[in-house]
Amino acid sequence: MGRLGERLAALRERGEGALIPFVTAGDPDLETTEALIPALVDAGADAVEIGVPFSDPLGDGPTIQRASERALRSGTSLRRVLELVKNLRPRVDVPLVLMGYANCLYTMGEENFAIAAQSAGVDGIIVVDLPPEEGESLFAAVRGRDIDPVLLAAPTTTSERLARLARETRGFLYCVALTGVTGARGTLDLGIEETVKRVRASSDVPVCVGFGVSKPEHAARIAEFADGVVVGSALIDRIAAAPSPTAAVDAAAEFVASLKAPLRASGGAAAIR
What we know:
Structural class: alpha/beta
Distance between the termini: 20 Å
Shape: globular
Number of strands: 9
CATH class: Alpha Beta
Oligomer: single chain
Helix content: 40-55%
Number of helices: 13
Strand content: 5-15%
CATH topology: TIM Barrel
CATH superfamily: Aldolase class I
Radius of gyration: 17 Å
Strand order of the largest sheet: 5-4-3-2-1-9-8-7-6
Largest sheet: 9 strands, parallel
């Protein structure tokens, strides 16, 4: 079991929900991201998803699209994101998970990417547009380097396919809370609870829920039936609205602390078992 699985298992054991914030690397620049991630960890993040900016992020809504555009304009690339992780690794002990699109990884080459990611200290990858049938060789390459490929499930995923995804994912299964692209929502679609129940019927794999989460109340509700919460667009909105990089780090850390508070000793994961 890698660092990602160990972290989620430890949180489940004590009945605490995991908080996994998402940030786009290089938004507004890599120096800010390098300051931001340790601040999020200090504020309570149990793992951090680091978005690799891409010119056509088809799974993302306007907030993360704009973040990718800003990051690309600042010169961010996959290789520079890996350098960022390597620089952070001595100072950050929580799992660091890269989230991006297949084109970026295949351009580097499957084995080359796996070697570079392991050397940098990456703990997991989420490839938004790569289903397991098409990603077998890439996922095998990273698993061979002790990096967890985290798979995604949607509300429309059949129970049969959910069982397969739960078997093949590593670290956790990422359950998308809605149909459509990423973006903060004022209300939470609790149809996702049924999806998580269907996963539980066939597997004990940790399940984290994302897409649309924007409030501490959302995090608290999700922790009643899932192992963790992923928050992206609502966090990036605060980073983008800040008047300076220092203010962005402070605003992001404050928001993450507010989201983590209801997850501490939430009892959600313990109740599921």
